[in-house]
Amino acid sequence: MSTVEYGLRRWIIVLGVLCAPLMETIDSSIINIALPNIQGNLGATLDEAAWAVTGYLMANVIVIPLTPWLQERFGRRQYFVATTIGFTIASVLCGFSTNIAALVGLRILQGLFGGGLIATAQSALRDTFPAEEVALSQGVFVLIIVVGPILAPVLGGAIVDNLSGPWIFFVNVVPGVISSVIVATMLQNPSKPKRLRVDGAGIALLAVGVGSLQYFLDEGERNDWFASQSIDVAALLAACGLLSFVIWELYGAREPIVDLRIFAKYRSVPIGLILAMGTSASFFGTTLVLPQFVQTILGFTAFESGQLQLFRALPVFFMVPVVAGFVGTGRVDARIMISAGWLLTAWSSFALFAQITSTSGFDRFIVPLLVGGAGSAMLAIPLLVIIQGTTSASDGPKASAFITLAFQLGGSVAGAILVTIVDRRAAFHVDALAAAVTLGRTPIPPLPTREWLTTTERLVAQQAQTMAFADTAFVVGVMALVLVFLVPLLKRQPKDMANVSLEA
């Protein structure tokens, strides 16, 4: 069944399809801004309030791999509408929560509904555009993935300052209604719903494995990693759950809930998954770490920090049509574009490493961020085009779900690793700098006063933090250079996307 649309109708469908993932990407991080407000309003501790974030992400990543099965079982349009409505209603209920237990429970429900929105939207976009315009469809999709995390802190800060905490949930009503109405009335199903067997064991093992992994990544640093019994248990459950899930899906399940065989069927899928995680780690790692540095060390306001992040997003906006045009027509090998993107990302990261000092000004970050944004545009779109162009129509949604999961976990892994680097390297630099402060140094008075000691301790700590933040940029740069060597392993996208075979 053809689902390709043209003209005004196509772009109305695109609007409806994109409203849902935009709502989800904003909501997954906007709550971080409002946590202190929520904590005070509901009388919760910081750890209790943090579960509103962790619970959502755990539920989110459990559903993402199940999305292709759910689309086949219930129909893409029906599933998309149901999850969008469910997500919107759960958002409203979160806003009306009167205690932290209710909020956490509703955030988990919200995550279960939201988990399938991004992968379903990506598949719907692929099938709404003709095959020769797959690059354009994926470019539009990338814009939403980039815009959401950039808008979240700016929008969250404006809501908390001018309205109140619950409004971070109420803002989902308008895009939720728009998306539900348009998708329900205009989006076509690529096939009729199928009566599929429910793989209960597979769902349970996936929930335990992926959910525990997300908890391990989110809570690890806060609980001092393996010094905490809960983190030990989460790591064990993640390892055992995921290993058991893989074995069961490959050898035990009569009708697997997740088709893991596409990893062997298409070599670009496993390589693409690693590169997608790296892309997410490089982009969202900077989005996470840089605002912390400029606000805590340089004294930037939240608004100035948000403005700084826009310089990372601007090149993506302008380069999407250019990159999509070159890659979609086959005039440029997408692998060359991806390699160039990683090299730009590496240069941007090393430039940030050089520019991060305790006296850096706003303007010193602009060029590295612009270059990094250009690199991101050259990574995401060509990678998605290769994945969509080298998988069959039936396997495309499965590959999309894995790539979406990779983007989600890549951000979580980057957050866990980079935050740990900041903490551990800051302690290392404090020891190194403190060892250099001796009576043999001329700045030290013969009889140091209490005030002098306090000032020196503060300066040492500040400089150590600055050096630790710089170390994270260096790590991202090294990662980018390493990933360049994986790109040649990808299969080249078809030169004529209009004639892409629908068979494997």
Walk me through the structure.
With 504 residues, the chain is mainly alpha-helical. Helices cover 76% and strands 0% of the residues. The chain is built from 18 helices and no strands. It has helices at 7-42, 46-63, 67-74, 76-95, 100-114, 117-128, 134-162, 167-170, 173-186, 200-219, 229-252, 262-265, 268-296, 302-328, 334-355, 366-389, 396-436, 450-484. Helix 1 (7-42) packs antiparallel against helix 2, helix 13 (268-296) packs antiparallel against helix 14 and helix 13 runs antiparallel to helix 18 (450-484).
End-to-end separation in angstroms reads 18 Å
**Rough outline:** globular
Uncertain segments: 498-504
Helical percentage: over 70%
What is the typical, i.e. mean, pLDDT? 81
Give the gist of this structure.
The chain has 504 residues and is mostly helical. It contains 18 helices and no strands. The radius of gyration is 23 Å and the shape is globular.
Can you give keywords for this protein?
504 residues, mainly alpha, 0% strand, globular, disordered C terminus
Write the layout of secondary structure elements.
Blueprint: H1 7-42, H2 46-63, H3 67-74, H4 76-95, H5 100-114, H6 117-128, H7 134-162, H8 167-170, H9 173-186, H10 200-219, H11 229-252, H12 262-265, H13 268-296, H14 302-328, H15 334-355, H16 366-389, H17 396-436, H18 450-484
Helix pairs in contact: 1-2, 1-6, 1-7, 1-9, 2-5, 2-10, 3-4, 4-5, 4-6, 4-9, 6-7, 6-17, 7-14, 7-16, 10-11, 10-17, 13-14, 13-16, 13-17, 13-18, 14-16, 15-16, 15-18, 17-18
